[in-house]
Amino acid sequence: MKLNGENRPLEEPVSLLAYLTALGCDPGKVAVEQNGQIVPKAQFASVVLKDTDELEVVSFVGGG
Amino acid sequence: MLRVMVNGKGEEASEGETLSSLAKRLSIAADVYIRNGFAVDGTLSLREGDQITLIERGKMPDKAQLEHMMTARHTPFVHERVKKATVGIAGLGGLGSNIAVMLARTGVGKLILADFDLVEPSNLNRQSYFIRHLGRPKTEALKEQIEEINPYVSVEIHTVRVEESDAVTLFGGCDVVCEAFDDPASKAALVSALLEGRPSVKLVAASGMAGFESANTIKTIRRFENLYLCGDGTNEAKEGNGLMAPRVTVCAAHQANMALRLLLGITEV
Question: I need a labelling partner for B28 at 20 to 30 A (CA). Which of B80, B132, B166, B180 fits?
Answer without folding.
Answer: B80
